[in-house]
């Protein structure tokens, strides 16, 4: 009785489209896979090969520069807890995946956001696409990426980029649109080109909002770690999935705690860097 009178074969169309895509652009997907695998291996080795204390000191120094000694001290404690649980190598693999996926998402998302802010047609096209990407369940991204790239870190990176790109586009567009039009008109009155107005007026004034988007992209990328572990992406996600399959509470809790520590570290550091922009400091001084 639940069968529809007229069935729309959306699933078959999607299956046929992915099959066509895979067979037609196999050379391109292989090239993308090779490049992403190389970049991921390089970053994972750069973070995982040095002794624990070397990488930890660098991360603590970044935390100190971003927000002072309190965040540095908290980061040192958190990183030592990860090391003490024996999850340092997995945490560095996870950090490599998150940083690489976030970098790609921002490299695509910020230019798209700038384009959308300066072109109403592009904005109208991108808005439903971003709505679709943000509302589609995260697990759905994995199906086509596994078909195209098989298992490993690459499908996890691609799925994470698709899942996390929307805030980068939306916050960049919002930030540039919020720039006072009189300031832009003043730049035009002095004969500045559109590119110069973008570089020297709009982007600097929109930087606090853009940094909020950077923060959201990184947080969404980190939230995909466990999902990416289902396709063998490695890192802490793999530890959580392994603990879930064997119903082992202890290792699962430890891996989850390590993800939380990394999330707090990345959130506070990116928020701190956003607050250090000249516009954010000027706004803070005017409120004081």
UniProtKB/TrEMBL annotation:
GO molecular function: amine transmembrane transporter activity; carnitine transmembrane transporter activity
GO BP field: choline transport; glycine betaine transport
Keywords noted in UniProt: Cell membrane, Membrane, Transmembrane, Transmembrane helix, Transport
Membrane topology: Multi-pass membrane protein
SUPFAM superfamilies: MetI-like
InterPro entries: MetI-like, MetI-like_sf
Keyword NADP on entry: no
Listed transmembrane segments: 12-30, 42-64, 71-89, 95-117, 138-166, 217-237, 249-266
Compartments, as annotated in UniProt: Cell membrane; Membrane
One Pfam family recorded for the sequence: BPD_transp_1
The ABC transmembrane type-1 domain, residue ranges: 91-270
GO cellular component: ATP-binding cassette (ABC) transporter complex
Keyword S-adenosyl-L-methionine: no
UniProt family annotation: Belongs to the binding-protein-dependent transport system permease family.
Protein name: Binding-protein-dependent transport systems inner membrane component
Organism: Beutenbergia cavernae (strain ATCC BAA-8 / DSM 12333 / CCUG 43141 / JCM 11478 / NBRC 16432 / NCIMB 13614 / HKI 0122)
């Amino acid at each position: 009785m639940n069968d529809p009178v007229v069935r729309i074969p959306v699933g078959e169309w999607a299956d046929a489209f992915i099959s066509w895509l895979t067979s037609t652009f196999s050379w391109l997907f292989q090239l993308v896979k090779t490049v992403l695998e190389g970049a991921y291996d390089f970053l994972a080795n750069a973070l995982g090969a040095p002794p624990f204390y070397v990488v930890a000191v660098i991360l603590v120094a970044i935390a100190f520069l971003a927000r002072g000694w309190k965040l540095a001290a908290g980061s040192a404690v958190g990183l030592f807890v990860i090391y003490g649980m024996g999850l340092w190598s997995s945490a560095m693999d996870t950090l490599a995946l998150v940083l690489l996926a976030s970098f790609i998402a921002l490299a695509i998302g910020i230019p798209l956001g700038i384009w959308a802010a300066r072109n109403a047609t592009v904005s109208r096209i991108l808005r439903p696409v971003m709505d679709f990407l943000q509302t589609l369940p995260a697990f759905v991204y994995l199906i086509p990426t596994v078909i195209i790239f098989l298992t490993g870190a690459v499908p996890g990176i691609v799925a994470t980029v698709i899942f996390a790109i929307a805030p980068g586009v939306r916050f960049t567009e919002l930030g540039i649109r919020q720039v006072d039009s009189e300031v832009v008109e003043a730049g035009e009155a002095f004969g500045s080109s559109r590119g110069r107005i973008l570089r020297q007026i709009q982007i600097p004034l929109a930087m606090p909002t853009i940094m909020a988007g950077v923060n959201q992209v990184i947080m969404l990328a980190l939230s995909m770690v466990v999902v990416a572990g289902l396709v063998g992406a490695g890192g802490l996600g793999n530890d959580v999935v392994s603990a879930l399959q064997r119903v082992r509470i202890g290792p699962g809790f430890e891996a989850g705690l390590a993800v939380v520590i990394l999330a707090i570290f990345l959130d506070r550091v990116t928020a701190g860097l956003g607050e250090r922009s000249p516009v954010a400091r000027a706004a803070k001084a005017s409120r004081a």
